[in-house]
Amino acid sequence: MAGVARIVIGIILLLLGLVFLLSIFGFIIGIFFIILGIVLIASGASSRGDSARMRQQQEQTNLLLQQQMQLTAMQMNRQAAQSQYPPSPQYAPPPNAAAPPADRYCQYCGTGNSRAAGFCQKCGAALPPPP
Fold first, then answer.
1. What's the whole-model pTM score?
2. Burial of 17 (0-12, 13-18, 19+ CB in 10 A)
């Protein structure tokens, strides 16, 4: 609809420009109106398919949003299905395995550590250098 209005206004300005162009005093005003009329007619003619193009772009955007929502829902369902299974058991050494002899003790928690350890096995604090 805006394209048709631009074309009509452009034609009116074009005709006004021709009238002013014929008079001696309005030559510059006439040229201005003619140029403005031509620009409005050209822009009105180019904008005639804008509403159909905008509608098509909106439909494509809606389709992409729907696909994104479906993908997100599928990912959420997949995560929910995976969480219903119990977690896999963590490796723990057998209870009767002999622990290496403690050569150094942590100054923060008192846990015994091997001579080669640089950090406490329980609290993770840095151990002082071995004597």
1. 0.33
2. buried
